[in-house]
Amino acid sequence: xxxxxxxxxxxxxxxxxxxxxxxxxxxxxxxxxxxxxxxxxxxxxxxxxxxxxxxxxxxxxxxxxxxxxxxxxxxxxxxxxxxxxxxxxxxxxxxxxxxxxxxxxxxxxxxxxxxxxxxxxxxxxxxxxxxxxxxxxxxxxxxxxxxxxxxxxxxxxxxxxxxxxxxxxxxxxxxxxxxxxxxxxxxxxxxxxxxxxxxxxxxxxxxxxxxxxxxxxxxxxxxxxxxxxxxxxxxxxxxxxxxx
Length: 244
Description:
Blueprint: H1 3-37, H2 43-70, H3 72-77, H4 83-88, H5 98-113, H6 115-119, H7 132-135, E1 139-140, E2 143-144, H8 145-168, H9 170-175, H10 181-208, H11 212-243
Antiparallel strand pairs: 1-2
Helix pairs in contact: 1-2, 1-11, 2-10, 2-11, 5-11, 8-10
InterPro entries: Seed_Dev/Stress_Resp_Reg (IPR051886), TGA_domain (IPR025422)
Protein name: DOG1 domain-containing protein
GO biological process, one term: DNA-templated transcription
């Protein structure tokens, strides 16, 4: 498959993947509502719905990794994304630490909306039970969440530095004076692979530290953010095109 064909194929995959994500999101909402409204709940069904969403994210990364092997420059350009999405990108995709901010925001909103019940001692098991102050001291496999966030920030910074070094030396590649252009392209692919691995590891780690109901709420928020930005950005690009 040619580089152009690989990018075209991934663009089609991306469109289909977003549509399927919306379907998984609707299913997860339905299972979550059933769990909330049921007298006994159905935690196993909730876990299965969460796993479906997580497998969908893993499928995306597998497809992107395969495309990166064929055309890393095309992947970095992200021609399938809207102008809005590209303006938010870091190394060809979303920044992993965004997920921590998302959890803090969601837990704060729910905490504030249910503060009366919480003060009365009622616990729902959702993200409202995990306020930002609680979140900073919760231990996950021997570490606090803040430590996990710091580790992610450090990895992000290391990747940013590595990409900056690659870009500083890119003039040789552009001018055609590089002694081994293929090796330089492979190095860029390694950086992108490392970045995507960090994205997948981060969302996996965050999900692992939450209860099933909290996992559902977090993934719903993450999916809504992903589909919302994609939808709004696409609509904006269409409006701009019609005005030209």
